[in-house]
Amino acid sequence: MKATAKAHTNIALIKYWGKRDESIILPTNSSLSLTLDGFYTTTTVAFQEDLSKDSFILNDQSVEGEAYQRVTNFLDKIRNLSGKTNLYAEVSSINEVPTAAGFASSASGFAALASAGTRAIGVDLSDEELSRLTRQGSGSACRSIYGGFVEWEMGSRTDGKDSQAVQIKPETHWDVRVAAVVLSSTMKKISSRAGMKRTVETSPFYTGWLDSIPNDMKEIKSAIRDKDFEKLGTVAESNCLKMHATTLGANPPFTYWHDTTLRVMHTVQEMRANGIPAYFTIDAGPNVKVLYLPENEDRVKEKLQEIPGVDRVTLSKPGPGVTYL
Amino acid sequence: MKATAKAHTNIALIKYWGKRDESIILPTNSSLSLTLDGFYTTTTVAFQEDLSKDSFILNDQSVEGEAYQRVTNFLDKIRNLSGKTNLYAEVSSINEVPTAAGFASSASGFAALASAGTRAIGVDLSDEELSRLTRQGSGSACRSIYGGFVEWEMGSRTDGKDSQAVQIKPETHWDVRVAAVVLSSTMKKISSRAGMKRTVETSPFYTGWLDSIPNDMKEIKSAIRDKDFEKLGTVAESNCLKMHATTLGANPPFTYWHDTTLRVMHTVQEMRANGIPAYFTIDAGPNVKVLYLPENEDRVKEKLQEIPGVDRVTLSKPGPGVTYL
């Protein structure tokens, strides 16, 4: 009745940006990510018969309020799957992901919770089934079930049975690295949930965004198959810029970018002009992630650390899928 | 055979961003601007019978190359209108507009050239006719024929006979001020001509941009009629953000923003949060223009000058239309 799972966060190269169903979290477009080995959550779930409610401890602190509610609501789904609706759980998580800074801590968090929770209660799911369950806790978390490059297929059904993650594998391992550039001032004002909702509902650019996804997805999958780094980076950077463009058309308009965000973007483009292949992507926050190849690691790290307003640069390799401890 | 005209530049509050006809410059959307009294061009045109070609002196320096070609091509249009195709002209301009920095020096330049040129050669045009002629030199220049708030009606004809500027007047004078915030590093990499062309041809957001214009135009004209500064500023700021969003979707993507651009934008939004009504707009370059009311001039100027990376702040009142000296 107790299990521990470790899941890594992922960085989207084709962004998830909008829901067609808020309750079971169905996206308006397919997305694609790289799981990162540098950022992860380790979660233990212990179901017990003598508890009157769930408890949730995050980094040794008891959690209440909205975050607690999301966890206990998700545990309800696991209880329903198993038929053991009379059990409550002690959930304990250690989060190695900076929160509220544009890093998807909810991705590794819900992937670890779903994995540990189902194993603890004795429900045996395939990876695809596990990804569909995880999706209902946090959309992008469904991609963290797998390592490496992962596509979240949007699906077309209203019940979500075809909205799941699958791995996209080059023939041999491809060591694409990611530098996570954390800015000194990083609290975001608009959550990704609220930002995507406002954008879907009000931005005149949302249709153009959706129309551009199938081609981006086709291109990036061919880049992964061919291990074509320039193509991978070009598509990822352009897709990120399109996602952020949609927010500028929202009503009221908003942006996740700080001045330092733009400085990092320009520095990456300058690196390319100077012969270092590097590409940026940015989630719903001010921080920047930079894609590069291992042979350029030292130069990329040095250039990024020199930028005024950058607090730290953390390097990451491709990470594995969920593991059980 | 000689005349001197002074024309002021204008700042677009609803942006001109795309051509449907490159040769006689017909826009894909109507636009609206405020003529500024701080930035202007004074041009003297002298037609003579004993010249073998046109000459163009800008700020006491002889101009050759592409800029010369645009002037002499425009003089051809004036010669054709008058029937006096055997005359050449000495053109001499003094430009009080920083060039290549997102300020439309071509706007005041072509408005002054069209006005002085037609008067020198003896062609008598109404303001609307003059604006249609000016449009063919530089699109946004057609709005500089008039003072205050000016709409460039896009028209629907293929010959451009209904694509002209008209004045939009509140019942009494409305003193809306503009602070031009010039950044320390200001050379832009992509001209507005090239930028709008690439955007029209490749951005998936261009349709959304066009679809949003009629409502923006309706709202801003009602704001001018009612002298509703908050509404004017809100529409202008949102329209500017939409224009800049379209460039992020272009292939390849680009932005005119520097890190300091974003810092100025955030400072303006902070001013509003602190009760000072101020709104930004940005043309095809990194500089920012800030709309404010006279009673807040000192505080707005002080706040903007304090921003690191800002070189200077120049204040301007609404400017007049073309005058003859």
Describe the structure.
The structure is a homodimer of 325-residue chains. Chain A is an alpha+beta fold. Chain A folds into two domains: 2-171, Ribosomal Protein S5, domain 2; 177-316, Alpha-Beta Plaits. Chain A is built from eight helices and 14 strands. In chain A, strands 1, 4, 5, 6, 7, 8, 9 and 14 form an eight-stranded mixed β-sheet that branches. In chain A, strand 11 (279-281) and strand 12 form a beta hairpin. In chain A, helix 5 (206-226) runs antiparallel to helix 6. The model of chain A has no long low-confidence stretch (mean pLDDT 95). The interface between A and B is medium-sized, with 31 and 31 residues.
Question: What's the number of extended β-strand segments of chain A?
Answer: 14
Tally of helical segments of chain A: 8
**What form of chain A results from the Cα inertia axes?**
globular
Instruction: Quickly give the CATH architecture of the largest domain in chain A.
Output: 2-Layer Sandwich
**How many structural domains of chain A?**
2
Biggest sheet record of chain A = 8 strands, mixed
Q: What is the string of SSEs of chain A from the N terminus onward?
A: EEEEEEHEHHEEEHHHHEEHEE
Q: What is the highest CATH level, the class of the largest domain in chain A? A: Alpha Beta
Determine the structural class of chain A based on helices, strands and strand pairing.
Answer: alpha+beta
Quick structural gist:
The structure is a homodimer of 325-residue chains. Chain A has 325 residues and is α+β, with helices and mostly antiparallel strands.
